[in-house]
Amino acid sequence: MRQDYQEAVMAAVELIAPGKVLAYGDIAELLGTGGPRQVGAVMARSGGAVPWWRVIRASGEPPACHGRTAWEHYAAENTPVRGTPADDGTGYRVRIAEARWQPSAADWIVLDGLRRGLGSAEADSEAAEQAPGGAPAGCGDAVGRSAAGPDRAMSVRHGEVEA
Predict the structure, then answer these.
(1) N or C: which end of the chain has fewer CB within 10 A?
(2) Measured between alpha carbons, how far is 158 from 148 in angstroms, rounded to an integer?
(3) In angstroms, rounded to a whole number, what is the distance separating the alpha carbons of residues 34 and 56?
(4) Radius of gyration of the chain (CA)
(5) Crossing angle of helices 36-46/3-15, nearest 10°?
(6) How far is CA 85 from the centre of its chain?
(7) Which H or E run contains 74?
């Protein structure tokens, strides 16, 4: 996995306010590249350096195998949850519709910079992989960019942008 992508994921996670959460796919959407699995891989490798409990599954479940520790953070930050944890840390979910973080105007500026940085790294990578016929190798894998900006918010259901 590219170092710049890992750094961008970590920087995005650091922006999430206490008591708020995003799903793995939300982070990918904000960065304009990757997906839930790629974000999960970064969090599994390096997430201990950031508030990892603020990145959850789209269902509201806490990060796998960390439910008990995450619960302590959610309680301390007054994150809205339903249920209570069982001995193994399962049995509850974050009420993601209420807890989903919405970037401020200042946060969007940071996120836009992260997206631009990843976009120029992708452009450099694609140029290096240019096929002889002129089309980039793997061009069916192109990822569309989000039109989200400072005066737009992610929808609660799908991480889409709404005005």
Answers:
(1) C
(2) 13
(3) 16
(4) 17
(5) 90
(6) 24
(7) helix 67-77
pTM of the model: 0.74
In single-letter form, the type of residue at position 1 comes to M
Q: Give the chain's largest Cα–Cα span.
A: 59
**Which residues are CB-neighbours of 100 under 8 A, at least 6 positions away?**
20, 21, 22, 26, 154, 156
CA–CA distance, 92 with 110 (Å, rounded to integer): 32
d(CA 102, CA 159): 11
Residue type, 13: V
Q: What is the token pair recorded at 91?
A: 């049995």
Element (H, E) at 93: strand 92-94
Residue found by looking up tokens 């922006």 in the block? 15
